[in-house]
C-alpha cells in the first residue's frame, strides 16, 4: 500500500464500501482521481472485515491522505444501528493506534474520529451530519477545530455556533435563526462595528454587482472580511466571507 492516498471514501449503508483512489491531475483547484491498478473496492463488507482493512492502512504511521470521506448517506432508521456500531469499532481501532492520521481535507457524517486526525495537517473540515448544540460544543474544544484554517457545516443550524469559529479564518455554514443579538455579537467579534453599516457599504469602496448586491472588504479586529449585502427571495441577506 503506497504511503500517499489521494482519496479514501468510506460509505455506510447496511454494509461498508471502501474506495481508494489517487489524484492524476489537479488544475484550477479541481482534482481528477484515478483508481490504482491494485486498488480495491471493498463492497458489501461487514463491520469487522471493513475496520480491519482500514486498520491496515491507518497502521502505517507515514500514511498521508489528501481527502478522507466518511459518508452515511440519507438517514435510514433501518441502517442506523449498523452505522453506529461501525463508527464505534472504527473509533476503537483508531484510538488503539500509537499515532494520529495525516489527513488534509475531511468530510464526515459524524465527529467521533476527529480527535484521531493530526491537527497540524488539516486544511479543511466539512461536517455533513446533523449537529446538535452538545456535539458542536464538544468539538469546539478539540485541537483539530481550533487549528484548522477552514470549516464547512452542510446541515442547517438553529443558531450561530460562536464557540466553533472564533479562530477559523474561513468558514461556511447556514443558520436558520440569526437573531439581532447574534448578529451584533458576530459583527463585534469579526468586524469593526462602527464600520459595518449599510450606508458604509453604499458610500465607501463597495462594488455593486449585476444583481444589485453591494460587496466590500472590511478590516476586522482579527480577520479581513468580504461582506455582501443583498436579497434572497425578497428578504435582505448578509453574507460574510473571511478573506484572511
Write a compact overview of the structure shown:
InterPro entries: DUF38/FTH_CAE_spp. This protein is of the alpha/beta class and 244 residues long.
Approximate strand percentage: 25-35%
Please, how many helices?
6
CATH architecture level-2 label of the largest domain: Alpha-Beta Horseshoe
Helix content: 25-40%
Could you tell me the number of beta strands?
13
Mean pLDDT: 77
General form: elongated
Tell me, what is the CATH class of the largest domain?
A: Alpha Beta
Biggest sheet statistics: 9 strands, mixed
- Quickly give the structural class: alpha/beta
Radius of gyration: 21 Å
For the record, give the distance between the C-alpha atoms at the N and C termini, rounded to a whole number.
37 Å
Which stretches are low in confidence, meaning pLDDT under 50 for 5 or more residues running? 35-43
Description:
It holds the Pfam family FTH. It comes from Caenorhabditis remanei. Residues 85-198 form the DUF38 domain. It is a single chain. Helices cover 25% and strands 34% of the residues. The strands form two sheets. Strands 1, 2, 3, 4, 5, 6, 7, 8 and 9 form a nine-stranded mixed beta sheet that branches. Helix 1 (47-58) packs parallel to helix 2. It is elongated, with a radius of gyration of 21 Å. By secondary structure, the chain is an alpha/beta fold. It contains six helices and 13 strands.
Amino acid at each position: 500500500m503506497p504511503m500517499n492516498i489521494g482519496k479514501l471514501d468510506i460509505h455506510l449503508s447496511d454494509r461498508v464500501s471502501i474506495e481508494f483512489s489517487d489524484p492524476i491531475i489537479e488544475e484550477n483547484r479541481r482534482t481528477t482521481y484515478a483508481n490504482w491498478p491494485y486498488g480495491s473496492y471493498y463492497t458489501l463488507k461487514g463491520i469487522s472485515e471493513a475496520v480491519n482493512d482500514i486498520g491496515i492502512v491507518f497502521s502505517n504511521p507515514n500514511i498521508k491522505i489528501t481527502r478522507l470521506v466518511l459518508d452515511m448517506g440519507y438517514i435510514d432508521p433501518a441502517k442506523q444501528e449498523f452505522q453506529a456500531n461501525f463508527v464505534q469499532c472504527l473509533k476503537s481501532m483508531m484510538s488503539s493506534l500509537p499515532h494520529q492520521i495525516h489527513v488534509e481535507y475531511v468530510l464526515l457524517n459524524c465527529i467521533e474520529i476527529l480527535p484521531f486526525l493530526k491537527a497540524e495537517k488539516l486544511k479543511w473540515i466539512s461536517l455533513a451530519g446533523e449537529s446538535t448544540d452538545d456535539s458542536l460544543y464538544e468539538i469546539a474544544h478539540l485541537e483539530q477545530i481550533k487549528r484548522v484554517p477552514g470549516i464547512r457545516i452542510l446541515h442547517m443550524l438553529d443558531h450561530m455556533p460562536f464557540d466553533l469559529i472564533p479562530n477559523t479564518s474561513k468558514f461556511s455554514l447556514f443558520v436558520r435563526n440569526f437573531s439581532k443579538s447574534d448578529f451584533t455579537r458576530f459583527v463585534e467579534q469579526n468586524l469593526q462595528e462602527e464600520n459595518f453599516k449599510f450606508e458604509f457599504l453604499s458610500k465607501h469602496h463597495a462594488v455593486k454587482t449585476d444583481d444589485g448586491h453591494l460587496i466590500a472588504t472590511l478590516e476586522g479586529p482579527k480577520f479581513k472580511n468580504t461582506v455582501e449585502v443583498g436579497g434572497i427571495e425578497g428578504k435582505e441577506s448578509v453574507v460574510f466571507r473571511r478573506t484572511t
